[in-house]
Amino acid sequence: MRVLLVAYGSRGDIEPMAGFALRLRELGAEVQMCAPPDFAELLDTVGLPLVPLGQSIREMTTEAVRETKPTVALTLPERAARIAAATYASLAAVAEGCDAVVATGLMPAAAAARSVADKLGIPYVFVSYFPTYLPSEQHPPLVWPGRQAPPEVTDNQVLWDLNAEIMNELFGGGVNALRTSVGLPPVDDVREHVFTDRPWLAADPVLGPWPEPEPEPAGPGVVQTGAWIKPDERPLPAELEAFLGAGTPPVYVGFGSMPLREAQEVARAAVAAVRAQGRRVLVSRGWADLALTDDQDDCFAVGEVNQQALFGRVAAVVHHGGAGTTTTAARAGAPQVVVPQMADQPYWAGRVAELGIGAAHEGPDPTFDSLSTALAGVLTPEVRARAAAVAGTIRTDGTAVAAKLLLEVVGRAPSPAPSA
User: Fold this and answer.
1) Homologous superfamily assigned to 2-229+396-412
2) In degrees, to the nearest 5, what angle opens at C-alpha 401 toward C-alphas 396 and 404?
3) DSSP 402
4) Between the CA of residue 107 and those of 83, 126, 218, 342, 357, what are the distances in Å?
């Protein structure tokens, strides 16, 4: 079996897909990973060759977050059309002979992946890493910037209907132009086309439960596999080990692959707030380029490290609320302070608070006072005990469940017709 895996997004989109790729490879499948060029080194460390897709995601998100004007100003539908066309071209060049396509990430890239699968006549699966990206009457959709629903509209089904209209407005033209250009019929509903009637939810059932009953095995509906975790056996750097061993467990502060508008102001506020709790500080540079504020020995900065090995040795984790970081901290039993910036991050902040394993910061801009309040609330024996209890419930078999499902999907599929 040969599988094309497409993940166009930040590290939180790519690393889980890499974990799935490794599981498929263990089962004897041939895997082709397609992702932004930023993650070539990450994938190379586990022996997964990369077909690079489009512009650097780090550059794209930095432009958006820091409001840097691009060289050529394009509307969002125009940018989406370009992403769809470029992604299709990259995927089509390596998709021949594949038995299935699995995609996640940006909508126009996933639409291109669906078009490649349609062109080849092979199964396509869409994966979401958090529940509220997928339609349900039990929760409202994500709000697209600049396209909020009228405040008087509160019915979830009406909000999802409006969401479908927005998706068609933003992506329909580019997606259908692409499909027409390669001899495929246009689609009326881009969201339904990309998500399908049986998307997978790669989130832990305790951390991110799907709010509706499990579907019948052969029927439509969301299928929750559990979180996709890429095992990490890397040792921690010697200098970090020395810092960890030189005192009490520090508080980790990092925002992963999230640029920040005022990164050094955030770093100063975080370091001061952690010190005010009588704790040492471990700053992760990440895409925000966080840096130390002074040369005191109670503070240490790290780059790329094994969070799975690290988070069990810290007092708490202050982070942006990406699905991967939230899951890793929860597995480690580390109390969390989630400072959500965008997309799924407010959802994970809310879940951390609801589960009692940490605090949800209000808004994306932390200050000394706001972080001090949050840290005081989570650096307690009660929250630590609750976090340890929840850690024991987190499943680690998500990629195995998904691999079995994919084998079943491919086994049920008819033989593909020759492409036109």
Assistant:
1) Glycogen Phosphorylase B; (3.40.50.2000)
2) 150
3) H
4) 9, 10, 26, 16, 32
Q: What is the mean pLDDT of residues 71-91?
A: 90
Structural contact between residues 252 and 338, judged by C-beta atoms closer than 8 angstroms: no
Q: Note the pTM of the prediction, 2 decimals.
A: 0.93
Which segments of the chain belong to CATH 3.40.50.2000? Answer: 2-229+396-412, 238-391
Task: Kindly report which listed range (68-82, 137-151, 282-296, 337-351) carries the lowest average pLDDT score.
Answer: 68-82
Tell me if residue 364 falls in helix, strand or coil.
coil
Check whether domain 238-391 has CATH 1.10.357.10, yes or no: no
- 354-363 own/partner pairs: CB under 8 Å, 24+ apart: 355/206, 355/207, 355/386, 355/390, 356/383, 356/386, 356/390, 357/330, 357/383, 357/386, 357/387, 357/390, 358/316, 358/317, 358/329, 358/383, 358/387, 361/337
Least confident of 65-79, 160-174, 223-237: 65-79
Closest-CA residue to 27 (of 405, 410, 404):
404
Kindly report the number of other CB atoms within 10 A of residue 82's CB atom. Answer: 15
Please name the residues in contact with 220: beta carbons below 8 A apart, sequence gap of 6 or more: 197, 198
How far apart are the C-alpha atoms of 312 and 315, rounded to whole Å? 8
